[in-house]
Amino acid sequence: MTLQQWVNDLSQIMDPSNIKINESLKTYTMTKLGGHADIFVMPNTEQEAQAIVKYAHQHNVPLLMLGNGSNMVVRDGGVRGIVIHFAKLDKIQITEGLVFAQGGALLKDVSKYAAAESLTGLEFACGIPGSIGGAMAMNAGAYGGEISDVIVETVVLTREGERVVLTKGELELGYRTSIIAKKGYYVLSSTFQLQRGEQEAIDAKIADLTYQRESRQPLEYPSAGSVFKRPTGYFAGKLIQDSDLQGKGVGGAEVSKKHAGFIINKDNATATDYIETIQMVQRVVKEKFDVDLELEVKIVGED
């Protein structure tokens, strides 16, 4: 099948105005890196999303889910097949302590929405830039809290397009992992259980965490956030700092001088610059400390 045939077929199952050909992915990633997607689609409804996933599976078309692009590096050659983006699936609802959020909603928005309703439990997420889908896949966490603390259930699409409801136990949530990541599921929505709290205390905690984040992280530059998982018995940032790697990099990419766990796009870096800087950090830390730094970010696409 040709690219045009895919587009023609997709136009029959979703709003054609939300189908883009040869779309640059730099706009959709926090690193501002990466090549083009053959086809880029943004479903308006969960039904459209399901139809797209089913179509890709039935016709053996490669399909990549792109959330808020906060934890992903897209290679310069771009992505073949279809990239699906859930930005239009961003509904948030609160009912008696239960917070419902679609997969495309931003986690930090859900956190702030809950805080405005005097609900406590998601303050830790006030600065996490990912979508609900990405947060669920990675069991996102910060400042002592993580998704597994508050999740009730998640509705996903399997790679075949089957709609499945997963309870907390079925999600297999661990440190930066879940069954969603392992199986390649697509998150339609999640429900969280929060508790009624004191508004003043909630606001104070969010203000404190926001200050910590803004003062310690290089938010003035594009980046993929924390690049590496925390190695057992160590902190990735401390190992990188002690390896004297801050300020070093390849091309326009650089290990942040503000937070060694971040690699920033400082000066019009390419994805190749960014990835080679990651590899340099892994190599030097291995040589100096015999510790293997495992990626927290996902690298996709073609060179």
Could you please describe the fold and organization of this structure?
The strands form 6 sheets. This protein has a 5-stranded antiparallel sheet with strand order 6-7-13-11-12. Helix content is 29%, strand content 25%. It is α+β, with helices and mostly antiparallel strands and 303 residues long. The longest helix has 19 residues, at 271-289. It contains 8 helices and 18 strands. Strand 11 and strand 12 form a beta hairpin. It has helices spanning 3-10, 46-58, 107-116, 132-138, 179-183, 199-216, 236-242, 271-289, and strands spanning 19-24, 36-41, 63-66, 72-74, 79-85, 92-95, 98-102, 119-120, 141-142, 145-146, 151-157, 163-167, 186-193, 195-196, 223-226, 253-255, 262-265, 298-300. The chain is globular, with a radius of gyration of 20 Å. The model has no long low-confidence stretch (mean pLDDT 96). It has 3 domains: 3-85, Uridine Diphospho-n-acetylenolpyruvylglucosamine Reductase, domain 2; 92-201, Uridine Diphospho-n-acetylenolpyruvylglucosamine Reductase, domain 3; 218-300, Uridine Diphospho-n-acetylenolpyruvylglucosamine Reductase, domain 1 (Alpha-Beta Complex), CATH 3.90.78. It catalyses: UDP-N-acetyl-alpha-D-muramate + NADP(+) = UDP-N-acetyl-3-O-(1-carboxyvinyl)-alpha-D-glucosamine + NADPH + H(+). Its EC number is 1.3.1.98.
Q: What's the quick description here?
A:
Its cofactor is FAD. With about 300 residues, this protein is α+β, with helices and mostly antiparallel strands.
Strand order of the largest sheet: 6-7-13-11-12
User: How many domains would you count in the coordinates?
Assistant: 3
Q: Tell me the total number of β-strands.
A: 18
Which stretches are poorly predicted, pLDDT < 50 over at least 5 residues?
none
Q: Cα distance, first to last residue?
A: 23 Å
**Can you give the helix content as a percent range?**
25-40%
Question: The CATH topology of the largest domain, please?
Answer: Uridine Diphospho-n-acetylenolpyruvylglucosamine Reductase, domain 3
The CATH architecture name of the largest domain reads: 2-Layer Sandwich
Net shape: globular
Biggest beta sheet attributes: 5 strands, antiparallel
Q: Helix and strand string, N-terminal first? A: HEEHEEEEEHEHEEEEHEEHEHEEHE
Which class of the largest domain in CATH terms? Alpha Beta
What is the CA-atom radius of gyration, in angstroms? 20 Å
| Average pLDDT | 96
Strand-residue proportion:
25-35%
Number of helices: 8
Tell me the structural class.
alpha+beta
